[in-house]
Amino acid sequence: MLQHDDHDVVVVGAGIAGLAATAALIAAGRDTVCLEARSRVGGRLLSTHAPPGVLDLGATWFWGGERRVEDLVARFGIDTFEQHLAGDTLVQDATGVRRLPGNLIDAPAHRFAPGAEALAGAFATGLPAGVVRLDSPVTAIRPHATGGVDVRTPGAVLHAEQVVVALPPALALARIDFDSRLPPELVRLARATPVWMGAVAKVVARYPAAFWRDAGLAGAAASSTGPLQELHDMSGPDGQPPALFGFAAAQIVGPGFEQAVTAQLAQLFGPAAARPDTLHIQNWSGERWTTPPAVHRLGDYSLFGHPLYQQPALDGRLHWASTETATRYAGHIEGALAAAERAVTASLTTDEANSCSR
Length: 358
Prior knowledge:
Helices cover 25% and strands 27% of the residues. It is an alpha/beta fold. A hairpin with a 5-residue loop joins strand 11 and strand 12 (149-153).
């Protein structure tokens, strides 16, 4: 039997945008629940333990001037450290591997000592019990006959005045039934908007030592022959745990991929790179709660932050809040936080306007 709930706001998705929106709405006095399809929070903030530290399989960095992230790490007391930059760059093409002086790929950036997922964990820990509902995929969002919206999961129907969709728009259109209530131009836009990291596999190789640093290399490399196209040092604070990571097109992940990766690492960094202690392959295209089908066909990143995402839908009751909808820093954690901030402001403004009209 379906459970029926009434709330002021339902937030769909417990990634960093959804959690930030949920926390802000509760702080503003709104009865809010956050529905998450996965059995964990964090979305594309995903870290794995690698004693004496962690390795990020999703979002990794934040940069100077990203004040929302800076404020959060200060608020939650999360230790950060600087991305390793020192050393030379490697470039790989059909003719072989060249070493170029200096780090020509990495820019100064900050990392999270306990992993990026710690941001999501800190948000979730600070929310009242029962606010975040895991294993609750949203299957439908529809206007209610008497006002507001109904948000359906396999086990419940939640009625709310407002809904914040903190999912990549293309994923929302692929997984949620909107009963043909969204404007056609919004539907076309959402279906065409790329999913940040959605068509990418992130490969992290952990080693017993950062031998590339001893050789004067930054761990930074670019390759036109692959499978990894761009590589970086992912070692933790003080170089522990030592690790390299790279990005590959998700479409090429399959039988023989792991062997191709270790062979490429050896070509770039020497024989020691062929024998990582662990090799993590996070194929984001295979995450059904991150990525819609045929995500590799979505390549127009100019659609990020489109004006239609800045406007509420469903008669002002649906608000977009994912990093793809941010007008600045789209694709960054900062962009997700900015989008959440905008959605919360729009939700509260609409709620106040509705209250005044009653």
